[in-house]
Every structure is written in structure tokens, then in C-alpha cells.
Amino acid sequence: MKVRNPRTGEYDYELMEDALEMVEKKATEIRSAQKAWQHLAIGERVAVLQKWLGSFTEFQTEIAEQLAIDTARKRISKVETSGIIGLMQAWIYRAPQLYNPPAERPSASATTVQIGQQWVPYGLVGVISPWNFPLLLALIDTIPALMAGCGVLLKPSEVTPRFMDGLEKSIAAVPELAAVLKLVRGGAETGKAVVNNSDAICFTGSVPTGKKIGAVCAERFIPAFLELGGKDPAIVLADADLEVATDAVLRSCVGATGQACQSLERIYVHESIYDTFVEKITKKAAAVTLTTNPDEGQMGPLIFEKQAEKIQEQIDDAVAKGATILTGGKVENIEGGLWCAPTVLTNVTHDMDVMVEETFGPLIPIMSFSTDDQALEWANDSIFGLSASVFSKDRDKALAIASQIEAGAISINDGSLTNKVYDAEKNSFKESGINGSRMGDAGFLRYFRKKAILIQTAYPETMANFEENPS
Ligand code: NAD
């Protein structure tokens, strides 16, 4: 598979796709090592992760450089690699505290029976990840799954695959880890093979792919932890601090060029402050600089050309239906890269794709509302329910609005706080995902099935006193 460089537009890297037999072979190899891995004490698995932390740190610069080519983001690539080091450290600290199957105890319902409880990890977890944060989203579920005693078969996105070379070197340096963590390369077909060879799936990606994977997992009767797309709303109440709100909304809309699942994508502003809000954010958006020189600037090019087409289609659809562009407004080819400056749109409605479909780009469509109920109705008028924001100086009022938004995480007086906070559990609502939280303690505990060992301590019932239960 040919891989495109988002800065130059050139196809300058070749991804050697794994044949389906190779996926099966790796799955079988992991399975043969996983039982021993599962039966290690948690402290022994922690020791292996410590070694990986060391080897990952050794290859950190190489991995960040590979990420920087695939994503055209220098600074964020460094943040991604240091974020993984932080995640490894966090699970090294937290997993042993959480691994605590309860001691044997008498049953309350059958008093002669002792209950023993075992925690049994899924044997092989398949992890399938997207292109927008290639390393972080490949490892965010992988690390706690390994800590729980699972083996992991990992398939990162074919759009941004270069970092796999460096990552594999860091894994190969720790043979105990390499036996239970293997990478496979390829696109949808390889992904399907991962789903068909695993005992549980952690998928991060789009809603359409998530639905397909969920259906196969249902057919195979295995759990699917699905983390999907979003169309996050922000509600800016009449008493919001406008400097704070415009800064936070802009950062959330254009950070990582809007290519984050938890980017704010539709903004509802109270009519009393609407004009000032629009004026301020337009001025700030117009001042955002592009990283056409990789060492300077604030916002990079779009990574995936199909996404760039979708962004342009949303702008065209909005303009055709009456929207006004106040700044930005088109996808441009600059030296082969596809760029879209921060784009503020007004006169938008929910009849336009830009207000209802995921954009995954730096668009800032703004509507004004007259009552809080109207803002809430619009915020909840979505198939998505990933996250949202509320801006107000009145904490209680903001909390009351937050409690009525149908989404799994609400940032108050900020945007996209879920990209900084890893220890708050959250579930996606509606089509943004399903099953146990990847964040917080549940991100580790969800990999165990609870097995009950029931020990009869009195004489077993004999056939002499066996009779049909009168009830
Ligand atoms: P995608 O769904 O196109 O692909 C994701 C992964 O699935 C890729 O590795 C791809 O090769 C694989 N795949 C494709 N078809 C498959 C199939 N039939 N079976 C198995 N695997 C298959 O998504 P994308 O374009 O890479 O990523 C962007 C999407 O990811 C956006 O919708 C974004 O919101 C979402 N996302 C969600 C979160 C979250 O935490 N909720 C985080 C980041 C991105």
C-alpha cells in the first residue's frame, strides 16, 4: 500500500500489508504465550512494562520523527510520544492497586457455600486504531489490556503507519512483551482478520466502520469496545467570559487541525453576546498561522485527502444553503499539502451537513439561541454523543445545563478536556460508542471476566433428601 505524505502530497512510503495467514499466525503465536503471561503475578507484568518503558524511551525520538512525517505535526508528535510514557507510568502505578480479586467469603444466599472470585482476562484483544493520533490511539487500550494479562494483536491505521517501525523496535527489545504484543499492517481486510481472530475488540474510528465491526463481534459473540466519532457542541451562555470562551472554542475547533474526535464542531451562543463572540473569534481565527514552514506556525495541513474532500463538501453545502464565511473557507493545495485555514461560518442551520455530520477539520459554525432550552434542544439534536462544552460564570447554571446534554463528557469553561484528563470514567452516548469506559479505572477492569468458584462446605445433598422444590 502506498502512503501519502500530508506535507508534500507525495506517496513516499510503502506499507507491506500482512497476508491474512500472517494475521492468523501472529494470533496463534500470541495465544500460545498468553496463558503464561496471564498467570504471572501483576508485579511481574509490571516489571515487563517497566522494561518496555525503558526501550520505548530509547526509540522515542525515532518514533516521534516517523509520526511527524505521517501527520505533518512536529510538536504534537512529541506530545504523543511523551503522552505514551505518561500512560505507561500511570498504569504501572495504578494497575497493581486495582488488581484485587476479593478474598473467599461465605455466601449470603446459600450459607454453607464459600464464594471465591477469579478475574479472568480475555485471551486475545484485537486493537484497531485510526490515523488522527496514530500512536496514542494504538496504545491507549493496549497498555491496560497487557497489564490485565491479555495478549494484544494491534492494527494501526494504514493512513499513518510509519511509526510502527520504531514501535516494533521498542517491543522487540523486550522479548517477554514481544511474545504477547504483535503488530499487523494493512487496511480494512487486515482489520477484519483481526476481528475474526480475537476474543474482544477495542476499536477507535468512524461510526460506519464501528457499526460493521460491532455486527461481526455480535455474530462472533465477543465484546466490542467501540470509541467512535463525534459532533461536539458548545453552549455559550449569556454570562460567559468571552475572552475565555472564544479562546477555548477556537483551540478546541482548530487544535490538531480539527482532526480530533473531541473537537468542538458546532457552537451555540446566546443572542445577547452573539455579535461580540463572532467578532472576537473571527479575529482570533484569522490570526492563526499555518505551519507551511514545519518549524513555525500553529496549525498543520489536513492528513487524509478523503477527509479534505469532505470538509470542502461541507463548506460548499453550507454556502449553497445560505451560510456566510467570515474567515478561511476553502481547502487549498500548498506545495502538495492540503490546507484549510480556520473557517468561521454564520447563518448556519441544522439543514446543513456542517451542523449535523462529523467534519474532522477546522470549521467553526456558529448559531445564536434565545433560550437555554433552545440551545439544549439543538445540542441534543444529533446522532452523536461523545462530548460537549458549556461556558458560563455561574457554576451551578453550567452544571444544570451539562446534566441535560446527551454526551459522555462535558467540559465546563473549556473545550476538549478529555484530551488532558485520563482518570475520569466516561461512556460515549448514542452512536459515538458503546461499552466500558477506556478512561479511568474501568480502562483496566473492563478486560476481566468475573468467575465465581462456589465451594460447598456442608454435606452435599444426597438423592435420599432430594425432592422437587415446592416453590
Ligand atoms: P475508520 O473507521 O475509517 O478506520 C479506523 C480503523 O479501522 C483503521 O485502522 C482501518 O483500517 C480499520 N478498518 C476499516 N474498515 C474495517 C473493517 N471493516 N473491519 C475492521 N477494521 C476496519 O476511521 P478513521 O478515518 O481512521 O478515523 C477517524 C474517525 O475516528 C473519526 O470518526 C473520529 O471521530 C474517530 N475517532 C474516535 C475517537 C474516540 O475516542 N471516540 C478517537 C479518535 C478518532
Structure description:
It contains 16 helices and 22 strands. It is of the alpha/beta class. The strands form six sheets. It has a seven-stranded mixed beta sheet, sandwiched between helices. A six-stranded mixed beta sheet has the order 7-6-5-8-9-21, with helices on both faces. Helix 9 links the parallel strand 8 (200-204) and strand 9. Helix 1 packs parallel to helix 8. The longest helix is centred in the first third of the chain and has 30 residues, at 42-71. The radius of gyration is 25 Å and the shape is globular. The model has no long low-confidence stretch (mean pLDDT 97). Nicotinamide-adenine-dinucleotide (NAD) binds at residues 128-132, 137, 155, 157-158, 187-188, 191-192, 195, 204-206, 209, 212-213, 227-230, 261, 358, 360, 386, 433. Residues 128-132, 137, 155, 157-158, 187-188, 191-192, 195, 204-206, 209, 212-213, 227-230, 261, 358, 360, 386, 433 line the site of nicotinamide-adenine-dinucleotide (NAD).
Topology:
Elements: E1 2-4, E2 11-14, H1 20-39, H2 42-71, H3 74-98, E3 105-106, E4 113-121, E5 124-128, H4 134-139, H5 142-148, E6 151-155, H6 163-172, H7 175-178, E7 181-183, H8 188-197, E8 200-204, H9 207-220, E9 224-227, E10 232-236, H10 242-254, E11 264-270, H11 274-286, H12 305-320, E12 324-327, E13 331-334, E14 337-340, E15 343-346, H13 353-356, E16 363-369, H14 372-379, E17 384-385, E18 387-391, H15 395-402, E19 409-412, E20 429-430, E21 433-434, H16 442-445, E22 448-456
Parallel strand pairs: 5-6, 5-8, 6-7, 8-9, 10-11, 10-18, 11-16, 15-16, 18-19
Antiparallel strand pairs: 1-2, 3-4, 4-22, 9-21, 12-15, 13-14, 17-20
Helix pairs in contact: 1-8, 2-3, 2-5, 2-6, 3-5, 10-11
This protein binds nicotinamide-adenine-dinucleotide.
